[in-house]
């Protein structure tokens, strides 16, 4: 089911379409929102649920202009921005609640520990970046989006994307060196 | 800065996309040529690759809720969808139901108990709405939001006039204003309300947010 088709069905009140869309795209958008929220997966889950409530109500407003996935991402982004504003960017202690979700039955204990450690390291590093910088880092390195795709999502010129990535990388590197020195 | 330095800097800025494999062939060739002749750029490439590996590995924890966790989230989301429909204003409810008959198959999947709860919520909302209307028609004639009495406007805070969208639902407007440090101080007159910024809010930011919101059709600043 294409996302645009799903939105048209949702606009007609089709809950099955909402369920299918949620199951298909929720993990991806939780990842994106988590990155914007510096790795706070619990908050990201709430943000994405709020976005889906808006999608249920607003799906009829998607008129086919632009990509349907991009339309959903903008809603998730706005909800994440609202969340950040409401929390006024108070630094949050990293939550380890979801570390267990990394567990893969085929992982050795050492491998599972490595994965958890990487997640914590990334959380702490992202917390040092602005949300704008977190967003481009995530889109480039995790979602492997192109320069032009990121510019559309972030709503800024391509040169701004490159500059943000450049500064984010410098800051991330400093933070990782600091963590490893501790 | 001479041309070579500009090329080096430009190549350095393209490294993230070289690493993620999305560079067009011409840019890719340019980066590879620069890498062949510039040891600093090669060191930079290592740093970028390290960051990319960390984000890929650490980020997996952000995106991989277990299957049962996804199902649990969905189980808690669907009743909220039902409740939101049930809490719709009568006008919006007519609009929604008029266009939603095609979704009968999906609705049939919902447990009957949810619909009972939904009708109960709608009935409760109607009582609350009646109370608000009665208050607005009362002799003191002021406006009181369901979240409390009107707050006095801070002396230096300009009033904002908001015309609400015809589709806006009252409980959503209230929640939205509350989350953006805005307090209702007047109205409604037709679909227009007056709000002021509470302490701690940033006026320009909140105006921008209001203008972007589908709940609000117009934002004016009272001079």
Question: Could you write a compact summary of the structure shown?
Answer:
Helices cover 72% and strands 0% of the residues of chain A. Chain A is mostly helical and 182 residues long.
Feature tags:
heterodimer; A: 182 residues; mainly alpha; Rna Polymerase Sigma Factor, Chain: A; Arc Repressor Mutant, subunit A; 2 domains; 8 helices; 72% helix; 0% strand; globular; B: 223 residues; alpha+beta; 3 domains; 4-stranded antiparallel beta sheet; 9 helices; 4 strands; 11% strand; elongated
Describe the structure.
The complex is a heterodimer of chains A (182) and B (223). Chain A has 182 residues and is mainly α. Chain A folds into two domains: 1-88, RNA polymerase sigma factor, region 2, helix turn helix motif (Rna Polymerase Sigma Factor, Chain: A); 108-182, Orthogonal Bundle (Arc Repressor Mutant, subunit A), CATH 1.10.10. In chain A, 72% of the residues lie in helices and 0% in strands. Chain A contains eight helices and no strands. Chain A starts with a helix and ends with a helix. Chain B has 223 residues and is α+β, with helices and mostly antiparallel strands. Chain B has three domains: 3-63; 67-136; 160-221. Chain B is elongated, with a radius of gyration of 27 Å.
SSE inventory with pairings:
The complex is a heterodimer of chains A (182) and B (223).
Chain A: H1 3-11, H2 15-36, H3 41-58, H4 68-87, H5 109-126, H6 131-142, H7 147-154, H8 158-181
Helix pairs in contact in A: 1-2, 2-3, 2-4, 3-4, 5-8, 6-8, 7-8
Chain B: H1 3-19, H2 25-37, H3 39-63, H4 67-86, H5 90-99, H6 104-108, H7 112-136, E1 160-164, H8 170-179, E2 182-189, E3 192-197, H9 203-212, E4 216-221
Antiparallel strand pairs in B: 1-3, 1-4, 2-3
* Major sheet characteristics of chain B: 4 strands, antiparallel
Q: What oligomeric state do the depicted chains represent?
A: heterodimer
The profile of the biggest β sheet of chain A is: none
> What helical percentage do the residues of chain A reach?
over 70%
Let me know the CATH homologous superfamily of the largest domain in chain A.
RNA polymerase sigma factor, region 2, helix turn helix motif
Note the overall shape of chain A: globular
Radius of gyration of chain A: 17 Å
The most extensive interface, with participating residues per chain, is:
A-B, 68 and 55 residues
What is CATH's topology name of the largest domain in chain A?
A: Rna Polymerase Sigma Factor, Chain: A
Mean pLDDT of chain B: 68
Number of strands of chain B: 4
Outline the low-pLDDT stretches of chain A: 93-103
Q: Tally the helices of chain A.
A: 8
In the predicted model, the low-confidence regions of chain B spanning at least 5 consecutive residues are: 1-5, 89-120, 122-155
Give me the CATH architecture of the largest domain in chain A, please: Orthogonal Bundle
Individual helix count of chain B: 9
Number of domains of chain B: 3
CATH class of the largest domain in chain A: Mainly Alpha
Structural class of chain A: mainly alpha
């Amino acid at each position: 089911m294409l996302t645009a088709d799903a939105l048209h069905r949702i606009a007609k009140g089709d809950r099955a379409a909402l369920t299918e869309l949620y199951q298909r795209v929720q993990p991806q958008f939780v990842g994106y929102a988590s990155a914007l929220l510096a790795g706070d997966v619990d908050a990201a889950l709430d943000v994405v649920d709020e976005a889906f409530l808006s999608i249920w109500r607003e799906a009829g407003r998607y008129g086919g202009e632009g990509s349907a996935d991009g339309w959903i991402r903008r809603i998730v982004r706005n909800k994440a921005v609202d969340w950040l504003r409401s929390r006024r960017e108070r630094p949050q202690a990293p939550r380890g609640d979801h570390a267990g979700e990394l567990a893969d039955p085929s992982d050795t204990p050492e491998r599972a520990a490595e994965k958890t450690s990487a997640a914590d390291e990334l959380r702490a590093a992202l917390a040092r970046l602005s949300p704008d910088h977190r967003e481009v880092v995530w889109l480039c390195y995790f979602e492997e989006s192109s320069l032009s795709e990121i510019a559309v999502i972030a709503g800024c010129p391509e040169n701004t994307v490159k500059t943000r990535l450049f500064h984010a990388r410098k800051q991330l590197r400093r933070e990782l060196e600091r963590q490893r020195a501790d | 800065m001479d041309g070579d330095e500009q090329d080096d800097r430009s190549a350095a800025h393209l490294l993230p996309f070289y690493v993620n494999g999305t560079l067009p062939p011409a840019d890719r060739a340019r980066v590879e040529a620069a890498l062949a002749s510039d040891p600093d750029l090669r060191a930079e490439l290592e740093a970028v690759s390290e960051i990319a590996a960390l984000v890929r590995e650490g980020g997996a924890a952000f995106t991989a809720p277990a299957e049962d966790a996804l199902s649990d989230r969905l189980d808690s989301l669907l009743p909220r969808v039902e409740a939101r429909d049930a809490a719709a204003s009568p006008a919006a409810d007519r609009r929604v139901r008029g266009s939603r008959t095609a979704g009968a198959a999906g609705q049939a999947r919902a447990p009957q108990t949810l619909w009972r709860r939904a009708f109960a919520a709608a009935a409760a909302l109607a009582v609350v709405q009646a109370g608000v209307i009665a208050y607005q028609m009362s002799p003191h004639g002021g406006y009181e939001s369901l979240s409390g009495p009107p707050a006095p406007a801070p002396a230096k805070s300009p009033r904002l006039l908001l015309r609400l969208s015809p589709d806006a639902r009252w409980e959503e407007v209230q929640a939205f204003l509350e989350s953006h440090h805005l307090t209702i101080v007047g109205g409604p007159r037709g679909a227009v309300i007056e709000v002021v910024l509470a302490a701690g809010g940033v006026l320009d930011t909140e105006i921008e947010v209001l203008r972007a919101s589908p709940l609000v059709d117009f934002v004016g600043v009272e001079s």
